[in-house]
Amino acid sequence: MSEVVRLTLVSHAMTDAMAVGRFPVDEELNALGRRQLDELDVGTADMALCGPEVRARQSAELLGLRARVDARLADLDCGRWRGMGLDMVEPDLLTLWLTEPARGPHGGESIVEMITRVRGWLADISRTPGRTVAVTHPAVIRAVILNALDAPPKSFWRVDVAPASCTTLHFRGMAWTLRSGSDHR
Q1: How far, in Å, CA of 173 to CA of 93, rounded?
Q2: Residue 119, number of CB atoms within 10 A of its CB
Q3: What pairing do the DSSP bridges indicate for beta strands 68-69 and 47-50?
């Protein structure tokens, strides 16, 4: 039997954009976010990775991880909506984006494109025995979960990922298993 692959996904902590419901820009964690990470213990890892954005790198650092940046863990590219509040986006375009995962009316990445990007990363991780901790974004974690469960893209918005939370998966040679509970090691 092949060696078990353990993957712990850590959602970066709170930012000002998250707190006010704004599309993200490359911003630092806010004071609440830094406090959230004080209470989180992700244990040790054979490999630590993070998204390229400041909020992901800063979260990894505050968790004591020496994480290598992996561009495939980047947040969903929201194109021209970056920095805008939901109330600033044309309602018809927002509805289109939320209901048709293959569409990207903001000029950025569609949900389907992101799920495909993350699928390639997840396939690579499935061939990496040991424990990997990846600090990334709620959208990336949603995409990982959909890939692991072979769920349709329309399910993307039905997965809620809290700031500074952990999601754990195991791979035992054939398929990913999503693990629920407080023990994320």
Answers
A1: 41
A2: 15
A3: parallel
Phi then psi for 163, rounded to 5 degrees? Answer: -60, 145
Tokens 């959230």 locate to 36
**3-class secondary-structure state, position 163:** coil
User: pLDDT tens digits for 97-141?
Assistant: 999 999 999 999 999 999 999 999 999 999 999 999 999 999 999
Q: DSSP string of 104-120? A: -TTSS--HHHHHHHHHH
- The token pair at 73 is 């863990």
What is the token pair recorded at 2?
């092949």
Q: How far apart are CA 109 and CA 104, in angstroms?
A: 6
CA dihedral 165, 116, 81, 90 (to 10 degrees): -110
| CA distance to 17, 19, 59, per residue, from 145 (Å) | 24, 24, 21
Rounded-to-integer distance, Cα 34 and Cα 150, Å: 34
Query: Quick one: which of 163, 108, 174 has its CA closest to 137?
Result: 163
pLDDT digits (tens, 9 = 90+) for 54-85: 999 999 999 999 999 999 999 999 999 999 99
**Helix-, strand-, coil-residue percentages of the chain, each rounded to 5:** 40, 15, 45
Per-residue confidence (pLDDT) for residue 1, from 0 to 100: 43
Rounded to whole angstroms, the Cα distance separating 111 from 103 reads: 7
